Amino acid sequence: MSEVMQNIGWAAVFALVGGLVGLGLVALAAVLLPRLIEKFTPNLDEEKEIARGNLAVGEYFGRVVGASILGTSIIIAAAVLGGILAALH
């Protein structure tokens, strides 16, 4: 097997493993970040306020959690791309 094909195979393995690890980390962030925000605001029950129709709490909560998950995804994508480039080089 040629070296090029071997490098392409390793790049595929790195992409698959990195993607699976990234998926797990994003799922973990989606579970832990709302709990973390609830600990930072102990006097405010976000779920109750959202159920009551308080849009400010809902938008803040959604934006902070969404931005954190998006940031985590960008970092994981950069790591996966780095692994692919390392395998192909």
Question: Treating each run of at least 4 consecutive H or I residues as one helix, how many helices?
Answer: 3
Main sheet: strands, sense, barrel: none
User: Which consecutive residue ranges, at least 5 long each, have pLDDT under 50?
Assistant: none
Class by alpha and beta content: mainly alpha
Instruction: Report the end-to-end length measured between terminal Cα atoms.
Output: 17 Å
Report the sheet-strand fraction: under 5%
Number of strands: 0
Helix content: over 70%
Give me the Rg, rounded: 19 Å
The average pLDDT is: 84
Order of helices and strands: HHH
Shape: rod-shaped
Give the tally of structural domains: 1
Strand-helix topology:
Layout: H1 3-40, H2 46-51, H3 55-88
Helix pairs in contact: 1-3
